[in-house]
Design brief:
This protein is mainly beta.
Amino acid sequence: PLVGSGTSLYISGSWTSTGFTADKAWMWLRRRGTPGTLTFKLHSNSAGNPGTVLQTVTKTVSDITEELSVLQVFDWSGTQVLSASTIYHISIYGASTDTIANHWEVGGTGDDLADAPAAGYRAGKKSTDGSSWSTTQFYPFFYVTDADVARRFYPFIFDQCLYVVDRKDNGTTASQLYINGDRGIATS
């Protein structure tokens, strides 16, 4: 949980971009009680830690009314160009006044009390102040994505494989064909 007096008031995750124009991010969240404002940030990289803030989105209990776990969108104004092969970070934190009875919980993997990642886990970061970061085994679930494309999908089976073709609503952008799995012929 993101609790005002804990060492994990701020948590962060990072990834290496493939190069695209980011429009929003998604995270698993759960609200407990009536916490204060939740703040999500997209950062550049600074020596392995969250650096310059590129985008910021805030949420309150009026935005997230359910106390069940939800996949929450953080849709910032405009877009953000992310360069290929470049590390970026997201960070999320609750209000310093949040308590164990009134706080936000973030979905992720690992143990938020551990100081180092277990084998096979990517290292997350935690901070008490948002400026001094330390490695943690907890890694938040998040997804940064480009803008939604208005389109329809048409699935079909061909030669025992599932395919999907899309048709963009704008009528001018080329369709794309997707396959579920791989096709090939054994040669040896």
